[in-house]
Each structure stands twice: as C-alpha cells, then as structure tokens.
Amino acid sequence: MAITAKPKAGLWAVLWDLLTTVDHKKIGLMYTATAFFAFALAGVFSLLIRAQLAVPNNTLLTGEQYNQILTLHGATMLFFFIIQAGLTGFGNFVVPLMLGARDVALPRVNAFSYWAFLGAMILALMSYFFPGGAPSVGWTFYYPFSVQSGSGVDFYLAAILLLGFSSLLGNANFIATIYNLRAQGMSMWKMPMYVWSVFAASVLNLFSLAGLTAATLLVLLDRKIGLTWFNPDIGGDPVLFQQFFWFYSHPTVYVMLLPYLGILAEVASTFARKPLFGYKQMVWAQMGIVVLGTMVWAHHMFTVGESTLFQIAFAFFTALIAVPTGVKLFNLIGTLWGGKLQMHTPLYWVLGFIFNFLLGGLPGSCSP
Q1: What domains does the chain contain, in order, with CATH numbers?
Q2: d(Cα 80, Cα 183) in Å, to the nearest integer?
Q3: Which of 17, 40, 94, 204 has the most CB atoms in a 10 Å sphere around its CB?
Q4: What gap in Å lies between CA 344 and CA 363, rounded to an integer?
Q5: Backbone angles phi, psi at 295, to 5 degrees
Q6: Which of left, alpha, beta for 349 (phi over 0: left; psi -120 to 50: alpha)?
Q7: Contact 135, 66 (CB under 8 A)
Q8: CA atoms of 340 and 343, how far apart (whole Å)
Q9: What is d(CA 38, CA 135) in angstroms, rounded to the nearest whole number?
Q10: Chain segment 112-127, per-residue pLDDT in tens
C-alpha cells in the first residue's frame, strides 16, 4: 500500500495557525523570535549611537535624534529582549515539558499575553514615525523631564502599561502552571532548576510590577489631565517617582538574571555528568534573591537627599544580596568540580559567565 506524503501547508495556513495557536511551544518560539528581532533592532540603534560618537562634532544625528535612539535602544534591550528571551520565550517552550504537563495552565491567556507584548513593542517603536518623533527621555523617563517632552512619550508610556499587563498575565500563568500541573510524583523539591528559576522570577516580577505601573500611569495622567503626585509646586514629591520606578526597575535586574542562572545550572549539570551540587541551597538562594531583590531599590537614589538611616538600610541590603548570588556561583563551581566535563560550546559559555559575572560583581556588592 503506497504511503502518500502529507501536503505542506501554504503560507496563509501557517500564518493563520500562528495567529490562532495556543500551543505553548509555538508561543514560546514566537516570544523568542520577537525578542531576538528586538535584539537585532537594538543592535542597529547601538551602531547609530557609536557612529555618532566616533568622531568629534559629528552631524550624523541631531541632539534630539541621538536622545531618541538612546531611549529606544535602552527600552528595546530591557523590556523587549532580555526579559522576554530568558523568561517568557524559553520558559513557555520548556517549562511544561519539564513538568510533564500538556500545556500551561491557561493557554488562551498565554496567547493573549504574547500578542499584548508584541503590541507593546510596536506601540513603542511606531512613535518614531509620528509628529514629535520617538521619546527622548531615556528608558527611565524621569519626572519632570517626561512630562515636559514631546508626544513620543505618550506612546512609550502606553507601551509600558500594555507590556505590564502582558507580564502580569504571563507570570501568573507560569506560577499557576508550576504549582498545579506537575507530573504525578514530582514534588516542588524534585523540579528542575530552570523551572525553579522561572517560578522565582515570576513571583518577583508580579510583586514588583505595581511600582512601574504606578510611575507610568501617574506620569501619563499628569501629561493628559494634570493629575500628579510628583509636582512640588502643588505639594507633590518628585522623589516619589523614583521610589515607584526603582521599586520595579531594580528587581527587574533579577527577573532578567534568574532564568539564565537556571539555564546555567542545567547546562553545568548536563556537561559535568553529575547532579547539581547543593540543589536545595541553590533553590533557597534563588528565593533569597526574590526577597532581598525587593529591598535594595533605593541604592539607585543615594544622591537624592534621603536620610542617613534610609541610606544605611539600603546599603546593608545591597551588600547582603551578594550572599545568595555568591551561593549560586559556588553551586555552579561545585557542580563542575570533580565532574566528567564535556568541553563543548555550552560549557564554555558557563565558564565564561562565571568569570565575567565575578569580575562584574567585584566593584560593587550588587553583583548584577
């Protein structure tokens, strides 16, 4: 009996499948592809910045254009690449597989989360083509500069709010999936380390996201209807913006870092041909980073005139967070020590990370 080959799907069929899919693997691939497109775009912005700075008195970009490109570079790298690639991209693809689950807990919500993320990125980038141009306030959009700048800031703030909605749904979905859909017999203490890292990053992102939402929404309301908590002329406090903003934007450093630490642990164990060294200690170190990561935001604000006690407290927690971060490094080294190392490309990346991360952490206690 002859076996006939299944005809290949046409372009429109493939596009329709991608537009309507709720499959976690396809959504993970779309997240990853979109994130790496953002990475490439940010690379183009970076080249423009470097070209402008290559020679004195260069006229490649005007001052306003330079600030716009600088803002888009920072926002694209932070919000649309590094978090999305390690957490939502790889996480969507492999977390259900590692748990033995058929899909994430809420597949349709997962799909909606991706399209909200893509919409946020388009919204941020399309501002460049409208009157007033792209935002020129830096990715931090500090008050009052963000209130006094052109219409591109409105696009940027709306994009951040939409991205926050996407993150809220995506992170809640990860937590629900990890807590409820583990295979029979897989306790929390038997989960792969990457799954733990996605769980920790999702908890941290959910907890801290309110700070960025408050900062963004209040600046947008100030721009549109004059409602503000930050204007000192009417009794507001501009430093409050920084409190809101950094309450999210420092923990997000660890939201970026934790999934990649989970990947490093999996790669180190695989290519050392031995189990992870100090599995439980590594888990507690990750959760310690989650807790301490919410207590260090004000080390970005040591020059704004806060009290000495305020500064001492945050300096203490900034130094303390180096402990769980150091534990993670020691666990990686302990995993490699005495193992049957398979010296292939993934392991070289692990070794390069350990060296680079250690050097980066030496100048300051906050390792990332």
Answers
A1: 21-191 (1.20.210.10)
A2: 32
A3: 204
A4: 31
A5: -120, 15
A6: alpha
A7: no
A8: 9
A9: 17
A10: 999 999 999 999 998 8
CA distances from 122 to 8, 45, 148, 252 (A): 31, 16, 23, 22
Q: pLDDT of 279-305, one tens digit each?
A: 999 999 999 999 999 999 998 898 888
The SS3 assignment for 358 reads helix
Q: What is the pLDDT of residue 364?
A: 58
Task: Note whether 228 and 218 are within 8 A (CB).
Answer: yes
**Half-sphere exposure of 335 toward its Cβ, with a 13 Å CA cutoff?**
30
Rounded CA gap, 101 and 170, in Å? 17
Confidence of residue 4 (pLDDT cuts 50, 70, 90): low
How far apart (Å, rounded) are the C-alpha atoms in residues 219 and 147?
7
The yes-or-no verdict on residue 323 having pLDDT over 70 is yes
State the Cα–Cα distance between residues 339 and 368, nearest whole angstrom.
27
- Cβ neighbours of 344 (radius 10 Å): 11
Neighbours of 26 (CB within 10 A): 16
Tell me the pTM. 0.90
Nearest-angstrom CA–CA distance, 329 and 336: 11
Q: Residue 330 CB: number of other CB atoms within 10 A?
A: 15
